[in-house]
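Fig. S4 source data, part A: sequence.
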Amino acid sequence: MSDFQVPDAKVSKLSPKGFEVSIPHKKGITLFAFHGQFNEPIRNLSEHEWAADIIKQTDGRWVYTNKEKIVEPGDTLYYWLTVRVKGVDYHAMHQTYKFGQKWRFFSWECTVTDMRVDRKRFIILFRMSGYQVPAAVVSPLLPQGFKVSIPHEEGITLFAFHGKLNKPIVNLSDQDWAADIIRPTKGRWVYENRDVLVRPKDVLFYWLTVRYLGKDYHAMGQQAQFTPQ
C-alpha cells in the first residue's frame, strides 16, 4: 500500500492539564505510535519525553492522551508519528504544534440601588483558544476534476484555495489555480475544479487561507495524492 499517507493529526489541549494527539481511523490501520517532547525538536527516536504504541482505536480515532503535562501558552509540541497499515509502517516525522491563546477583555458598568446609588465596574476575562484551519478533504470528481473542502464553522467568512499539480508551491504566484470562496455550500466551504484531468498517483499541492472573525489563518505546504477509483 505504497500510496498511504499518514493522516494529519489533531492536537488538543486538555483541561485542567495535559494534551491529546489523534488521527482518524482508516481501513487497515492496526497501530498508531507517538513520540513527542516539548520545546525542543526530536532528532531521533531515542530522544523524546514520551513514547506510546496505541493498539486500539476509540470512536473512530487513534488517540494518544497525556493528562500529566502542564501546557503553557506558547509551548511547542514536537512529535513523530508512525502508523502501521496492513503490516507496513508509515511515518510522519518532524511534526510541530504550538499551543496558543488569545485574550479578550470586556467591561461594563452596572448600578446597584440600595437606598443609594453605587457605581461598580466589573472586568470580565474570556479566554479563546487559537484557531486552526480544519483538515481539508480532497476528492476526485467524475468524469474529471477534483474538489477541496473544509467544514463550516461559525465565524468563517472566506475560504481561499491555491493549488498546483505534481509540483510543490513555492509562493503564491507559483500556482495553477487560485480562488476565493465567499459562501459555504451545505455546511462546507468547497473549491471545485472540473477542467483538469486527474490521473492516479497525481499529487495535488495546495495552500489554504481561512478568514475567521476577520483574521486570515493559513495552512501551507499541504498535499494529497489521488488514488485509483
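Fig. S4 source data, part B ends here. The chain has two domains: 10-98, 137-225.
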